[in-house]
Amino acid sequence: MIKIKKNILLIDQHDKNGLWAGKFGGNWVPETLKKPIEDLTQLFQKLRYDKQFLKQRNYYFDNYIGAPTPFIKLQNLTRHLGGAEIWAKVVSENRGTAHKIYNAVVHCLIAKHAGKKYVCGDTGAGMAGKTLAMVAKKFGLKCKIFMGSKDIKRQKLNVEVMKKHGAEVIPVTTGSQTLVDAVSECMRYWVANCLSTHLVVGSTVGPNIFVKICAWSTAQISKELKIQMINIFKKIPKKVKLINCVGGGSSAMGFWNEFMDYNLKQVEFIGVEAGGPKNSKLHAAPLTNNSKIGILHGAKQYVMQNKEGQISETESISAGLDYPGVSPLHCFLKDAKRARYTSATDEDALAAYQLVTTLEDISPSLEPSHAFAEAIKLAPKLSPSAIIVVNSCGDSLKDKFIIKKRLGSYIR
Amino acid sequence: MTSKILETFLKCQKEQRPALLTYTVAGDSTKKQSLEIIKSIGEHADIIELGFPHNTPIADGGQIQESSHRALKNGIKLSDVFRLVKNFKQSKYAKPLILMGYFNLILQYGLLAFLKQCKKVGVDGLIIVDLPYPENKYFANQCKQHGITFVQLLSPTTSKQRIKKIIKDSHDMIYYISMLSTTGGKLKVPSKKILANYSQIKKINSRKKIVIGFGITTKTIVTLKKADGLVVGSQLCKEITRSLQIRQNPVTNLNRMVLNLKRKII
User: Fold this and answer.
1) Which CATH entry fits the domain spanning A66-97+216-407: 3.40.640.10, 3.30.70.20, 3.40.30.10, 3.40.50.1100?
2) pLDDT by residue (tens digit) across A35-55?
3) DSSP states of A373-397 as a string?
């Protein structure tokens, strides 16, 4: 049985080859990228303990992104469902309207330290792209965003914002024209431009160092939450369920990080993957569906693939979860049985969105709506002493057109 | 025992010219046609590189992506690739053959099962794009035990210390990537600079045969002819695309192009 070590950050529990649990992650990259990855690894290792750098990071986290984001009880939803208390960590209230901005700020700070003038990044729902474009502009960095053309169409509001912030948005027309292809194209771009350009992988995926930087950045969410919970409940309650959607897995890693060493019975982690349209077999849910281990974007992970090893096409209403692979960290948590994973369908997510927005004054995007779907299912089965916290990690505005089309109207 | 790959390099050396290596994708544009292509260009090429396509490549440029896409659309599988190799190896212009691709396909097939099958059909070498040193130590060693050349890659970003380690661990042939680019990019580095880097590597161990690839076309090939070998890939893939568009036979067009390449380095 794979075990998680206590008192060591999960991101640091890999071996010298960059593998977690000896089998997830690593650096399966073309030779050309070995050196830039090694350089970035050394730089990050230095900066993460550098007082000046941490001061800078904290300054931007507190004053620019805005910390802490609200932690609120969803009283009406709790009353409506009966059972456990339901709370939300409304991460979407930050300046970037999603957790992606933590990763963007840290990467841009690193890029500045490395003396790079350009950043490039991938995006699915457009949140990683939007926040990177915002932060790059602020820091005076030129920015290129790679995005699948299918996603450009369905998340066009975010595309407009990226352009407004001066980023060049490059449509990716290969394959399924979604996030998986955007990440591939962005990596190809980096292969050719690695000396001048800093690569920002938008989630806890990709070669080892990118997984680490992203999870280190989003950990801010659970740092805030832990303090907020202790302020409200005096201590961490006896039965807590932390529910988070999982695509690449960056928001979930950030949401869970500070609670890693708690007993599973006290703080349970539940990850909700994208089940796609009802009756569809094109799931973006490798953990739920017991996919085989394969290599995608430089890392070993559970990944949706056919027998030959070709990566499967996926389908989900939420562009941000529409990814055939998942972070090696989540593969580790699954095998160590520290987290459990399930999926919600497009229809479940829409129904959850509708219920939450009808009863409460928050407006989660379709990604966290998957997490709310699981919370709605789970709450009535639990006692009123149990606390469910959902990470509401994205704002629905980007999904305006999809929601309007599927539910008839969108009011925000 | 001298490998067929090494024999080929020694033969070319005697003729005082670099070896010509071609790269095409198995199954492009159909399984049958891709076999016809390598059977035909084997007449002029010294070593044949054959790609087995993957649908999430992280180092291929547009031309090769397009070829891979066509091949996958036509349902190419590893079993077909092995059949192609077997057929080619029994043909009139059979040459040493190197399979090139991404590691996940081999991982899913099973490392040893894959090598056994390679041996059986006559594969001489392997280039795995996303299996760098030291991740490739075990697999490269297994290749050696199966009598298959594992081709290590070196790039302009590879540090001197690392180059030494990789060369020490390499078999007969090493692939030097000419510039920072995906495949099919325009040669954006002066040939002189590429050859200077090449000489540096060659100095470390002159017995290793070093081929240069990326950005090599009928236009640029002549400037690099001092190398042990030169790889042309994207231009051939592009020629297949062009031939299909104007409804010409890719087989005859590629034969002509490879002959043309050969003439420039004799």
Assistant:
1) 3.40.50.1100
2) 999 999 999 999 999 999 999
3) HHHHHHGGGS-TT-EEEEE--BBGG
